[in-house]
DNA sequence: AGGCTCATGTAACCGGTTACATGATTAT
DNA sequence: ATAATCATGTAACCGGTTACATGAGCCT
């Protein structure tokens, strides 16, 4: 469901092709919403059928043809009312298979659990590095006109940054406890 | 997929009925894995078919009959190898429809976005209360087996606590920026 | 009389993933 | 040569959600 609103959100900034949307997701939303390209194309078809967007095929000679989608009035309304709904209860919910593994970590010796947490920490650090280059790519979308928009984009980046920092600190605390722990 | 490993994990502690599992999920894993009761029963059926668990019907006169499930040797092996896999890349991934709404918050006036963030903050605080404040009661993990298990359970609680605290602080920062922001 | 706990399921649906398929142009 | 970029899709599958269905006993 949310993918379709993400698409509507981008198309609300201006017409785009499926390929453009894939790039847009990759360069901005990917930290909290990873979109498969195949899924985007499927969703575009559904949205067009619903009348939320309309597509126009652009014939190109040097490159493959493409289909540019624009948001319709009804599409705009649907998007705006989704926004107006505000934060749902699910916003505080955090689903994680990794934490489930940690929960059952008592079935492994401390050294193995510690190794798992160290791997997690390393992945977090890699993630942080990748994030470091994001604010710039995000500014490409805004063009000086709309500082107001970019503030919100920065909010989501800040969230991701705080989240990962928190993960690393937590992992450190866990690892320390595991190191000071005698074999059960 | 993860639900089935959660079930296997609990059954690895000892035999349980579907109903027991529902309670177990509600009282421990629910902060990072919310399981529907219908889904648990479906998964139990699948796991039995796979030979990972075996069920035995207990006839009760005063209460509805129940089916007690036990983990099999192959089930144990599957569970242990899942644990041994360690943290996957997906561990750092955080999917959130709410953050997507924040990302597109520039389409709303600052007052409305601020209201959304205040609602989010309030939900976080409610969540914290439900969790029960357990910040510094984490000391004294000795060497016996029971404490060894609970240490890991505490790890996941700590994560949840840090996560929510981080959410609240972030929301505060965002709200402040929105309050000091002129209408676009 | 009304609501809670115990106890287990089915059916329809849907959002999302994985694997597969194609094929031209452009840059190294 | 070969890799990357541009560009779009289909089909099968699956994990999970929602809605629905049942029914006895216990507590107030």
A few lines on this structure:
With 184 residues, the first copy, chain A, is mainly alpha-helical. Chain A is 65% helix and 8% strand.
Question: How would you characterize this protein structure?
Answer:
- Two copies of one chain form a homodimer.
- Chain A is mainly alpha-helical and 184 residues long.
- Chain A folds into two domains: 2-84, Winged helix-like DNA-binding domain superfamily/Winged helix DNA-binding domain (Arc Repressor Mutant, subunit A, Orthogonal Bundle); 97-179.
- The first copy, chain A, contains eight helices and three strands.
- Chain A has helices spanning 2-13, 18-27, 37-50, 73-84, 97-103, 110-132, 134-142, 147-179, and strands at residues 16-17, 53-58, 66-71.
- In chain A, strands 1-3-2 form a three-stranded antiparallel beta sheet.
- In chain A, a hairpin with a 7-residue loop joins strand 2 (53-58) and strand 3 (66-71).
- In chain A, helix 1 (2-13) crosses helix 4 and helix 2 crosses helix 3.
- The relative contact order of chain A is 0.11.
- Residues 136-145 of chain A have low confidence and may be disordered.
- At the A-B interface, helix 1, helix 4, helix 5, helix 6 and helix 8 of A face helix 1, helix 4, helix 5, helix 6 and helix 7 of B.
- The structure holds a DNA duplex (28 and 28 nucleotides).
């Amino acid at each position: 469901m949310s993918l379709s609103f993400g698409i509507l959100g981008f198309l609300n900034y201006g017409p785009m092709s499926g390929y453009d949307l894939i790039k847009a997701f990759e360069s901005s939303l990917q930290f909290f919403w990873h979109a498969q390209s195949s899924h985007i194309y499927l969703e575009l078809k559904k949205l067009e059928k619903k009348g939320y967007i309309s597509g126009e095929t652009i014939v190109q000679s040097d490159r493959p043809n493409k289909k540019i989608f624009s948001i319709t009035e009804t599409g705009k309304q649907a998007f705006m009312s989704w926004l107006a709904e505000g934060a749902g209860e699910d916003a505080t919910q955090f689903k994680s298979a990794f934490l489930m593994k940690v929960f059952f970590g008592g079935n492994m010796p401390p050294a193995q659990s510690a190794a798992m947490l160290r791997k997690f920490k390393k992945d977090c650090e890699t993630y942080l590095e990748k994030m470091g280059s994001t604010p710039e790519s995000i500014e490409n979308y805004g063009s000086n006109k709309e500082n107001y928009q970019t503030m919100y984009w920065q909010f989501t980046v800040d969230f991701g940054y705080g989240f990962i920092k928190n993960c690393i600190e937590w992992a450190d605390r866990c690892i320390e406890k595991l190191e000071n722990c005698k074999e059960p």
